[in-house]
Amino acid sequence: MTDQQLPEPPEVAHEVFTGEAWSRAEAFAELLAGPGVVRGLLGPREIPRIWDRHLLNCAVVAEAIPADVRLVDIGSGAGLPGLVLAIVRPDISVTLLEPLLRRTVFLEECVETLKLENVEVLRGRAEEFAGRREFDVASARAVAPLDRLLTWALPLLREGGELLAMKGERAAEELAAADTQLRSSGVRTAELVSVGHGKVEPPATLVRVVAGRAPMKASQASRRTDRASRSKRARGQ
């Protein structure tokens, strides 16, 4: 076990995690500080910061998530932010997508221990599920630079779906650096969103990208329209 003690939750945690979410958040904090650290999913130095840096910082992302959506957490790791979002938002369906076996085993144990019925754990890489699964929202935290993350997330989103990438103080820089990728991906909008005011300090910064029709899908639709037009002309319509 570790020699670091899990700190008492701050008062604001009671405002963020309410009802059944409170006991689950406490239990998840214990899992992160115990098995999560022992198995190398979280560093020992993170134990004193589990509540403020991890649980609360992830929970406030829920402010940007619409009701009753299907969310995929890309590269879920120790379940941050995906498991936290599932705890604080029982109305949403959460898929924890993670390629590494030791992490998916930990996530499955957490889901079972916390009795979360709105969560599934999926082992694999995002690109493996493009065209096979579709979601309303994709979340990601410390997974990859934004330009690379876009190539993984956008194929998993429905048209009009949203990527919510936790990016912190470098968010504006990454958004600017991904300009070319954003333009070529046919996204509708890309902007910075600040959440958690009065709950976490500093507030959490997200890059929110709204997916448009992917260029490939658009070209396929265009070809279908062209074929239909040619067919009508051939029939004299």
TrEMBL record:
Q: What class of enzyme is it?
A: transferase
Subcellular location, principal: cytoplasm
Recorded hits in Gene3D superfamilies, A to Z, give: Vaccinia Virus protein VP39
> Where does it live in the cell?
Cytoplasm
The UniProt record lists the keyword Transferase: yes
Q: What GO CC annotations are associated with the protein? A: cytosol
Q: Tell me the gene name.
A: rsmG
- What's an example of a GO molecular-function annotation for this chain? rRNA (guanine-N7-)-methyltransferase activity
- Membership in a protein family: Belongs to the methyltransferase superfamily. RNA methyltransferase RsmG family.
**E.C. numbers:** 2.1.1.-
Task: Note whether Membrane occurs among the keywords.
Answer: no
Role:
Specifically methylates the N7 position of a guanine in 16S rRNA.
Superkingdom of this protein's organism: Bacteria
Keyword annotations: Cytoplasm, Methyltransferase, rRNA processing, S-adenosyl-L-methionine, Transferase
**Name under which the protein is recorded:** Ribosomal RNA small subunit methyltransferase G
The record's annotation in InterPro entries points to: rRNA_ssu_MeTfrase_G (IPR003682), SAM-dependent_MTases_sf (IPR029063)
- Renumbered to this chain, region (Disordered) spans 212-237
Which parts of the sequence bind S-adenosyl-L-methionine? G75, L80, A126, E127, R141
